[in-house]
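Entry 14. Ran structure prediction on the chain below.
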Amino acid sequence: MVTRIFNRRFAGNYLSTLGFVALAWWVITDLSSFHQGILQGQWQFGMFGIDAVLTVHTLFLALIGLYVVVLVPYYASWPWLHSKAFVFLQGLWFTVLRVGRPESRAHAARRALQPWNLPLRLAPSPAVRQAGLALLLKFFFAPLMINWCLDHVANMAAAVIQCIDGFGEGLRGRALFDASLFWALFQCILFADTLLFTIGYIVEVPALHNRIRSVDPTFFGWFVCLACYPPFNDFTGRFLEWQSSDFPHFDNDWLHLAANVLLLISMSIYSWASIALGFKASNLTNRGIVSRGPYSVVRHPAYAAKNFAWWIGALPTFIVWFPSGDLRAALYSVCAMAGWTAIYVLRAITEERHLLMVDNGYAEYMQRVRWRFIPGVI
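Output, structure tokens:
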């Protein structure tokens, strides 16, 4: 193990990865106002005799410190690995070195037949492009998922404590459900989802079979995915104003309970899909085909379940606008929700296109599981 640490490959993998982490931290803390806002969050611990404040900034630094330590046994245990940062930097280096070298006659003749090509041969190899896309993917999603995961932990803990206190104070039925029970279950569901995605973006271990084999190389695939995540979804929301509620309210108690229980079931299926993916959970990636759990029924259970929950959450909006006679507002609310659903349909299509680019068994999986969203329908 010690001899593996003191060699050039380990140094290249380790130092290049640390360089990427340092660059990402600099961008997050000094350049990106969006991430600077995330780092301002904090949690107040006032339970079990603990009185402390934990800031997101401090927690991120602690996670980076842990990551720096864990990388040592990681690269020592798998010396045959090439880190994505190393592949990317090495590719850029050799690409730059090629500039200015004498051009062969054969290459000059080929370039003469393609007048629109740039005179400088700066096109990186497919492996370098994939490494760069993987680094970009981790840079964008890892901080976002960590922050969401922490938010769900804090909200879940607060809701559970509130539920216990409310029950002790005599709250029952809808009063208890509305005040805390729903939110405790809802945050628990979201925590399970974001925890797996957080791990999926940070951890790639050969023993877990979750190495990123490829990242979607197309602009449109990235576009429809990022349109659903902050800060880009703020721009999407200007055209498709959000109509749904996480916790829709109805006057009728039975309708209220039935709708929200159904919403929780839908979100549970959504989280179940993430659990089925396990440590392979991440957007825009090919990490191997998963066909267990809800993926044995439809190919995109998470998208189907999430959108079904959103339509349930939009029912109070529809109930307000349609009886009011404001047909324009009513149609807009339906079209806005349909627009968000259409984005997820496009995400499913672009993901399948990406997974079909290589022979990884997805074509056979599509033959076994015919339906994308709803069995027997679509």
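The domain at 144-378 is CATH 1.20.120.1630 (Four Helix Bundle (Hemerythrin (Met), subunit A)). Will compare against last week's run tomorrow.
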